Amino acid sequence: MNGKERMLEAFARREPDRVPVWEMAFNEESIIKLASFFTDDLPPVKFAQQMTPEEKLKLLTCLFTIVRELELDGISSLALLNTEPAGQDLVKDGWGRLLRVSEEGEATAVGGPVSSPGDLDNMEPYHPQQAELLVLMAARGNFGDEIAQVFVQPGPFRESWTFLGSMEKLLFYYIKNPAFVHALARLATDFILEVVDMAIELGADIIGLDGDLAFSQTTLMAPEHYYEFILPYHKEITERVHGHGKLVFKHSDGNMSPIMDGIVEAGFDGFHPVQPQCMDIAEVKAKYGDRLCILGNIDCMHLLPFGSEEEVELSVKETIAAAAPGGGYIISSSNSIHPGVKSENYIAMVKAARKYGRYPITIEV
Amino acid sequence: MEQLLSELKASVIEGDEEAVKRLVAESHASGISPRRVLEEAMMPAMEEIGTRFSKGEAYIPELIVAAYAMEAGMETLKPLLLGDEQGAGTVVLGTVAGDIHSIGKNLVRMCLEGAGFDVVDIGEDLKTEKFVEAYREHKPRVLGLSALLSSTMLHMREVIEAVRAVDPDAIVMVGGAPVTQEFANEIGASGYAPNAFEAAVKARQLLS
Fold first, then answer.
1. Which residues are A90's β-sheet partners?
2. Does B100 contact A176 at a Cβ distance shorter than 8 Å?
3. Residues on chain A touching B61 (C-beta within 8 angstroms)
4. Test mutation, A108, A170, A226, A229, chain B, max B CBs within 10 A
5. Residue A336 pLDDT more than 60?
6. CA nearest to B12, candidates B56, B94, B76
7. SS (H, E, C) chain B
8. What ipTM was reported for this prediction?
9. pLDDT tops 80 at residue A190
């Protein structure tokens, strides 16, 4: 069984030969640190947006090296929308969104092209370009059908708030101007559908919709707001992906319990990452394991940055025991391999997944 | 009078900014003291949203509209509150270096204002010296540090040490997604709260 078959088998909620290992994202610095275990040909540590084309290529090669050396079962890519510099630490994309990059995280929208409903009238939608999906093309070209091609795209909630440059503003309009919220979601969803079509045409097997809908305690919005403002758009996207014969999962950090039924109803095939600080993977498995493939759960907040390799191994063992029997589980960190994660711990996580993840699962914890 | 205050409270909860501004002005015109308006209508409104929030009956959108309405009301009310009547004191609030997330900090700011504090929001991605400068300048009763990333929360320790070098009795509160009570204890923070409402309650407790 190759990586792609393993991932698809898990998504079908059947037992593959072993628990698939995959990661939704690695930051630039993490890629370079991890790749240094396998090669000396490394780019300088900086953000992809600030790299020369040669450095970007080197970064990508490093990512491919990690995936190959660690025998990961899938690789994730995302659209790198064209941007132009817009001041110190700021870039602007084709929509006119201002993104700020910080030393320790991903680029975050801090200003949007829309500040009031009237702004939508004159707004020209931005259309994705194939060249912006270069990472997917390169990954597909490099790995073919050996491993699953996962393409990660912000969902309608995240795209909507970035048009405003602020999540706070979008949530304000949930109560103050529902029609505006729908107009933003429409604009976002049309764009997402275009990106998804293109990604699938270029070889994506699985689409991941990112954009958090929850924080540690509960969802960002009431369940009825999820059903009103997000679920219909999620449904459009899952139907489009399924129409192409492909799979789609929802990513959200935080405690998603209040809207997990909605995630199933929207037609998602999987859910990532079941953040261990606020959701219990055994409970999620028991309640939704017959309808959703579960991805993630290995703590990247404390365990992977600060824990020991032994603690990582124990956590992997326990998580596999809880989530893998019967299939439908793909192991990954609880968000991403960010610069705070110790490379040694990530490697220990992958090794432990191989050690304990062979089916049938017979671990006793 | 009671009627006006209860309408005002309801308008804050509903997030009706216009009604809040009008009712604050009407309360003043009918001779209700600004302190009563604050303590008997506006602060209880935020407390009620907090209670609903903790019961899962209100979510962040409801909090945001109420807090905006509260802010709108405070604009009218603040100039009327005199000298020592100006509330619970000053809090300086910011997100630590490397972290550009603002929503959690903003929610804490809104809840602190709802609890009667004057909040100086110094922004995001701030180096330790920025916190020290702001501490010296504003001499707050409480300094609040926010972080969303586990990789950035480590800067909280540096800030606490640097501020305590200036004022050994400095009250420093910490919060944010990766932060726990254990971590707060470990780095010597004076207080921690798991969400914005409890942050406001905690700040008041620390000062009482």
1. A100
2. no
3. 171-172, 174-175, 221-222, 225
4. A108
5. yes
6. B76
7. CHHHHHHHHHHHHHCCHHHHHHHHHHHHHCCCCHHHHHHHHHHHHHHHHHHHHHCCCCCHHHHHHHHHHHHHHHHHHHHHCCHHHCCCEEEEEEEECCCCCCHHHHHHHHHHHHCCEEEEEEEEEECHHHHHHHHHHHCCCEEEEECCCCCCCCHHHHHHHHHHHHCCCCCEEEECCCCCHHHHHHCCCCEECCCHHHHHHHHHHHHC
8. 0.92
9. yes
The closest of B105, B91, B185, B192 to B143, measured between CA atoms, is B91
- Determine the Cα–Cα distance for residues A101 and A269; give it in Å rounded to an integer: 32
Tell me which amino acid residue A145 is.
Answer: D
Which chain A residue lies closest to B68 (C-alpha atoms)? A172
Nearest to B159, CA basis, from B123, B133, B120 = B133
Phi/psi at A254 (5° precision): 85, 180
The DSSP bridge partners found for residue B174 are B145, B192
Q: Which of A110, A216, A305 sits opposite B150 (nearest CB)?
A: A305
Q: What is the pLDDT of residues B102-157, one digit of tens each?
A: 788 988 998 898 888 999 999 988 899 999 999 999 999 999 999 877 667 888 99
Each residue's pLDDT tens digit, A68-104: 999 999 999 999 888 888 888 788 999 999 988 766 5
On whether any CB of chain A is under 8 Å from the CB of B106, the answer is yes
State how far the Cα of B145 lies from the Cα of B156, in Å rounded to an integer: 7
3-class DSSP assignment, residue A102 = coil
CB A202 within 8 A of CB A209: no
Sheet of B142-146, strand order: B117-126, B89-96, B142-146, B172-175, B191-192
pLDDT bracket for residue B84 (50, 70, 90):
very low
Chain B from 1 to 60: CB within 8 A of any A CB? 15, 56, 58-60
A230 has a pLDDT exceeding 60: yes
